[in-house]
Every structure is written in structure tokens, then in C-alpha cells.
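Side project, low priority. Logging it here so it doesn't get lost.
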Amino acid sequence: MPTSPSSLATATSHTPDVLAMASRDNAAILTIAHRGFWKNTAENSIASIEAAIAHGVEMVEIDTQATIDGHLVVIHDKTLDRTTTGTGVVSNLPFDTVRKARLKAGAGGVDAAVTQECVPTLEEILEAARGRIAVNIDTKFERDFPSVVDTVLRLGVEAQVLVKTDIDVDAAAFPLVNADWFGRIPHMPMFRVRKDRFAEDLRRIAAFRAPMIEVKFDDLDDVAAAREELERQNVRVWINTLDVSHCLDLNDTRALDDPHAVWTRLKQAGVGAIQTDEIAAFRAWVAATRNEGDAA
């Protein structure tokens, strides 16, 4: 059954300072709850944030996009269909219509139970997380990014928020670093690790002063080989073990059967943050391996 937000409302998590959390001085490997802890709630819901906090998660990842009348709502898909009782393309619908839909439990779908929760706004999610848990915002459409930044700054929660964008490591310049918000809200570049070029590419993007980078890779040895440059720039590596991430076979399904073959292997390669859909199993692995060495 979906978890009631009220039953978890008093729970607290870690001090949600993204820069302190991401620093390599922090030996802990970070748990990133993909769309919140949604297994017993609903993805991208207030309840999924509360459940993540209750389970000691350091950061939740959420998705946001704007309705046709400019309200930032927290939902992953382009449409309401999978995760709610509503239908239609979110960006073509007014906020009032989106708000009338009710979230479906878990990952949604035709047979999923219906909760009493509505699609939350970005502001509501950030208020629920305020002072309690860090939030990684995945802005689904580039057009909405300025509104996301404005919301974070207006609410004064920038220290506990991480925004992210894809980057081209071969670009001659990175205009983003000249944006008026840059340096005020922690930013995470995302790119694919190139064979034998990861350290070089880290030097290429040094202007971002990134606290954390999200990467995909074809060879985990390439990640491990750049440890010296990662340490020099004080950059933490974020890897997704979601089944859809395609980082070799280092995924949640395999980790449930053999966590050491996936999560321990990533940790030993210097990965310091893992985004997963299997929060309970991952937190159990964290507890069991806490004293087995650093997560860089």
C-alpha cells in the first residue's frame, strides 16, 4: 500500500548541503533515489520524498516540466497516462487539469492502485525537502530550465539542489558558466566517458568547477584510471545502476542478486554516488560495507 506522507512527516535525513555532500572529503557513497523512493508510494510524489528521508537517503532525483500555463509540475513522462488517472500531454494541458489527476502507486500503469496524491509542483517538492534532503532536478525540456532556476533561487534552497545538463566535452567554449545563476546553484555536467580520454575530458571541462559529474561508460577501467584528476578537481562520480542506464551489466537487477558484483565494483572504481530504483537493497549494502573503505 502507498505510504502516507503524514506518517513520515517528522522524519529527517542528512544535512542537505550538496557541495559538502559531493566533496571527496566525504567518504560516504551517496544514495540517489530515482524519482524518490517510489516502490511503496508513487514516483515523483511527496510520499516518495518522505519515504526516502525515512530511509536515510542523501538525495532524491525528480523530474519537472511546465504545463501550458507555465506551472512547473513534477512528473517524468510527456503524458499523464502511465503515472496518473489522467490522460494527455502535460505541456498541452492547463495546471488545473493536471492537478485533478491522481497519482498511481509504484511505477504506475493500467493495473496500478490509485493513491490520494495529486501531481506535485516543483515548489511543493522543494518545500517538502527543505532542510531535510538534497534534490537533483532533471528538467525534462530545455525550455523550462530558466523557470526551474528561478524557482530554486526564489525559494532560497539552492544549497540543497543539484541541477544538471548534458554537455559536449569537445565544445570550444561553455556559455553556461557565464549564466547569472551559475555558481549559485550546484551544477552537474553529464557526458559519456570516452575510451582512454576521461582524465583529458575532465581537464577540458574544468571551467564548470563541477562538484559531481554523471557519466556513462563502456569500460569501468576508464573511470578508475582518472582517479588522480578527479581528486585534483575534487569531483565526485555519479553512476546510474537503473536497468535502463546501459552501463554494461552494472544494473539494479543484477545487484539484487549480487550487490558486490555491481555496487561494490563501482565503489572500488572510485564511484561516489549511485542512483538506483532499489533503495532498500542499496541501503542494506551501504550499511554492510560502510567500513570496507572509501567511496571517492
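Brief comment: The chain has twelve helices and eleven strands.
Revisit when time allows.
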